[in-house]
Amino acid sequence: MSHSPHVVTVTAANFQAVVIEGSYERPVLVDFWADWCAPCRMLMPMLAKLAEQYDGRFLLAKVDTEAEQALAAQFGIRSLPTVQLFRNGQAVDQFMGALPEPQVREFLDRHLPRASDGMLQRAEAALASGDLAGARALIEQTRAEDPDNKRLPLIEVQWLAGSGEVAKALEAIDSLPLEFVNDPEVAALRGQLSFASAIEDAPGEAELSARLDTDPRDSEARYQLAAHRVLRGDYETALEHLFELMKHDRAYGEDAGRKGMLAVFDLLGGGNDLVARYRARMMNALY
C-alpha cells in the first residue's frame, strides 16, 4: 500500500499543501507516529487498509514525529499514536491510542461525507424551489439506500414545514437526535415553525393592523402580525413589533415578545447588523 494514492508521508515541507490546503478538498486524517511506538505499528496498517476501503473519501497523511518534532509540537502531540482529522484547514477531532477498527470506523463516519449526502442536498434544493414531490422522492430514496444518514431526519422536518404540516413538523423537530440540540440550522427552523404555528388560525395582516390601530395594547394582534412579517421576510418590522410587545406585556405568551426576538436572531444569524441593533435595544430595555 506504499504506492496508494490515498496514503502519503507528510513533512514540514509539504504539510501546508497536503493537509491544510488539501483538507478543503477532502478530509485528511493525520497519523502522528514513531518507529519505537508499538501501538503505532499496530494502528498504521489498519488506517492504510481503511484508506483503501473508503476509496478516496479521506486522505491518510503519516507524520513521523521523530523526524518532524516541530510539527508534533505545533499540533500539541504529547502521546503516540495521536490521529487528528482535518477539514477546511483545521483539526476538527482526534483520537489517541490504537483503537479497534470498529471504533476508528465510527470516528471516520462521524466526519466523512456519505454517498447519500448529494441526494439530500438535491432534496433541499427541490424544497427551496417549491418542488415538494421531487424532494419527497429524494428523501424516500435516501431512506431506502442510507437510512442512517444523520441529516435525513432534519430534511424530513424541512419537508413537513414546506408542506404546511406545521404541527407534525414541530413534533418531528422535538424528536431529532441529541446531536441537533445546539444546531443553529435547527434553532432557525424551530423559530420559523413557531411563527407559522402562531398564524395558522390568525386573521390576515390587514385585519391585525386595523386591530392595532384601534388598540395598540392588543398583544395577540401585535404578535400575530410580527409572525406574518417574519414569514414573508420583513424581519425589521417583525422585530419592532416583538420589541414593543416585550416592553409593554412580558406576561403575554410567557414573554413571547422576548422569545420571539431571540427566534428571529436565530433565523438571521449572529453576524447580521439587524440582530446586533435589536439585541442591543433588547438588552437596554431589560437591564
UniProtKB/TrEMBL annotation:
<keyword id="KW-0249">Electron transport</keyword>
<protein>
    <recommendedName>
        <fullName>Thioredoxin</fullName>
    </recommendedName>
</protein>
<dbReference type="InterPro" id="IPR013766">
    <property type="entry name" value="Thioredoxin_domain"/>
</dbReference>
<dbReference type="GO" id="GO:0005737">
    <property type="term" value="C:cytoplasm"/>
</dbReference>
<keyword id="KW-0676">Redox-active center</keyword>
<dbReference type="GO" id="GO:0015035">
    <property type="term" value="F:protein-disulfide reductase activity"/>
</dbReference>
<dbReference type="InterPro" id="IPR011990">
    <property type="entry name" value="TPR-like_helical_dom_sf"/>
</dbReference>
<keyword id="KW-1015">Disulfide bond</keyword>
<dbReference type="Pfam" id="PF14559">
    <property type="entry name" value="TPR_19"/>
</dbReference>
<dbReference type="Pfam" id="PF14561">
    <property type="entry name" value="TPR_20"/>
</dbReference>
<dbReference type="GO" id="GO:0006950">
    <property type="term" value="P:response to stress"/>
</dbReference>
<keyword id="KW-0813">Transport</keyword>
<dbReference type="InterPro" id="IPR017937">
    <property type="entry name" value="Thioredoxin_CS"/>
</dbReference>
<dbReference type="InterPro" id="IPR036249">
    <property type="entry name" value="Thioredoxin-like_sf"/>
</dbReference>
<feature type="domain" description="Thioredoxin">
    <location>
        <begin position="6"/>
        <end position="113"/>
    </location>
</feature>
<dbReference type="InterPro" id="IPR005746">
    <property type="entry name" value="Thioredoxin"/>
</dbReference>
<dbReference type="Pfam" id="PF00085">
    <property type="entry name" value="Thioredoxin"/>
</dbReference>
<comment type="similarity">
    <text>Belongs to the thioredoxin family.</text>
</comment>
